[in-house]
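Appendix B: complex inputs.
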Amino acid sequence: MTENTKNDLSSQLFQRALKVAPGGVHSPVRSFKGMDRAPIFFAKSEGAYLFDVEGKRYIDYCQSFGPLILGHRDPEVQEVVLEMIHTSWTFGACEPYSLELGEWLKENIPWLGKLRFVSSGTEAVMSALRVARGATGREKILKFDGCYHGHVDSLLVSAGSGLAGEAVPSSAGISATVGKLTVVCPLDDEAEFNRVFEENQCELAAVIIEPLPANYGLLPQRLEFLKFVADKCKKNNVLLIFDEVISGFRVALGGMAEITGIIPDLVCYGKILGGGFPVGCYGGRQDLMDMVAPLGPVYQAGTLSANPIGMRAGLATLKKMKRIQGWELLKAKTEHLKKELQPLLHTQNMNMVSFESLFWIHEKRENTDAAIRSNHLIPKNQAAGFKKLFLNALNKGLYLAPNAYEVGFMSAAHSSEVLAETVTIIKSALFDIQNDKFGVRPS
Ligand SMILES: *Cc1c(COP(=O)(O)O)cnc(C)c1O
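Resulting structure:
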């Protein structure tokens, strides 16, 4: 087992990386912050597996935080990627590849009027907000506490001191003036939403929500709550934006919109849509999307937008998912894993919640088995409990996202052998935790 001694290759690389990038990383969660060890450096990936720089193999349930729904380097996707590598990398001009993906999306998600490809989920959200403001002439956006929408300034805020309505920037460098244009509500609370909505109604351009909040644990919402939010928007001419960057093409081809039957005015996609390459997309009502340049006054552009490699990887991924009925397949795999793991986790006062092929392992709430639908209900010992499981599983060759509030992702490459090995590893990790002999490096 790779103990994280100062001499292992990952630790050596991390020491070098610390001199290059803030915290040694190019996105914060990658740093293993709070995990009391250096992050592992991976050199290679295939299917359900990651291989670190020393060649050690790990079963991967992070899957690059969701994009790889078919697993790493699915052979069919790899084939079209290689073909495109030998054809063109980028044109910065019109090409048929984004047209093919765009037409496929419109065909399979019939309410999608028009769409625009960008290069990340953050960019998609940022652009959708601009359209909403441009179309309504109003400035404020209502978001929900516990939902993540990328690192766009106006949404990197949370509720101030538990006070719904008041937003405080959750990052330095965000103008308080920009922060004031965002109002925040708790999830799963019709009354508070109603109150904050009505207080700001005349100024609201849009309400944005992750219809399946999955960036602060997995917090499935009641359908009635989502419908309440949607109805309120509709009745008051406030736009509804579904941020489906994580749920889109993950929970169903048509995402949470398909599952709930709620059609948003605008939708944001990313992650799976690029099949592992940087692709985002915003779209929705045609009259709204026709406000975007060059047709309309809302400006938005991108040098590498609709990158042909990402377009083809995304389309190959989605076509294969549809052909193999991937959504049912992945749900069955996830349900199976949950059935096996649940009794083991319960012995340690932990629980696994899942929605289609997303799952989250969390500390159980005290005195209740009721679902956690709001980030305020996440037990306080979540970080400490998850850390033990994470480190133990890691030492035994299983990689979960290195943060207690990130979810796990099943892929089509997680075969029944991989699932069986997962159960063995978690069982052994929980046993070690129970006997207090988990291999955290003494610091
Ligand atoms: C990942 C994510 C984003 C941000 O996408 P990036 O590609 O990381 O910029 C936005 N919204 C949700 C719901 C996400 O899960």
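The chain has two domains: 40-73+325-434, 75-323.
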